[in-house]
Amino acid sequence: MKKLHYKDSNGEGTMEIDTLLWAIGRSPELEKLNLDVTKVEKNEKGHIKTDEYQNTNVPHIYALGDVCDRGFELTPVAIAAGRKLSDRLFGGQADAHLDYSNIPSVVFSHPVVGSIGLTEPEARQKYGDDQIKIYNSSFTAMYYSMMEPEDKGPTSYKLICAGNEEKVVGMHILGTGSDEILQGFGVAIKMGATKADFDRCVAIHPTSAEELVTMK
Q1: Active-site residue identified among 5, 60, 110, 205
Q2: Residues 61 and 126 in one domain
Q3: What CATH number corresponds to the domain at position 187?
Q4: Which domain holds residue 187?
Q5: In the chain, fewer beta carbons within 10 Å around the N or the C end?
Q6: What Gene3D superfamilies does the entry give (predicted)?
């Protein structure tokens, strides 16, 4: 065990830890672009401010990917945004732009963590407590059935549903295979699936993903 001394807005203290993960985010490298002479606006973290069409505040200067302030520092997001911008500028599609809502993302940790849509606090703030219903399931995946108990990893799924129709506005999953599972369910959530839509899908057994269509 190691001792970690920390200091934050609530004071300071010491705790015993095994491992420290330093995950403070990334800063965009814009210095060499000399953007100051263009008057392009940036936010407090140094990201370039853009609207939904990737426009900056300066005409004919656009920003996308990790340098812009849309909140998704992911390669597929940058590619998709670039293609939409190209369609708008050169493809005759005047309204082409990337929809940044319900973009799935995964942390390839052990176990894998996947997420799409709103978190529970975000959903409660947007829709109100009385409009939110949460479904949870935690279990041991079949993948670990022949392993010793100390080698088994956790699996936990969470659905966040809003309104009387219980539209799925957030899904957060942890466990082996979560990356592959999320890609498929991401399509359904992007299309506006409800909890009833999930329930109508016959489960594939034995899988971990079947928990998402059998939650009560």
Answers
A1: 205
A2: no
A3: 3.30.390.30
A4: 105-213
A5: C
A6: 3.30.390.30, FAD/NAD(P)-binding domain
For residue 172, pLDDT over 90 is answered with yes
Q: Which of 85, 100, 115 is the last residue of a domain?
A: 100
204: buried, middle or exposed (CB in 10 Å: 19+, 13-18, 0-12)? Answer: exposed
- For residue 172, which of 99, 121, 100, 98 has the smallest C-alpha distance? 121
Please, which pLDDT band fits residue 177 given cuts at 50, 70 and 90?
Answer: very high
List phi, psi (to 5°) of 43.
-85, -175
Q: Phi and psi for 123 in degrees, rounded to 5?
A: -65, -40
CATH number of the domain to which 18 belongs? 3.50.50.60
6-47: pLDDT as tens digits: 998 899 999 999 988 888 778 899 989 989 899 999 999 999
Q: Give dist(CA 173, CA 114) in Å, integer.
A: 5
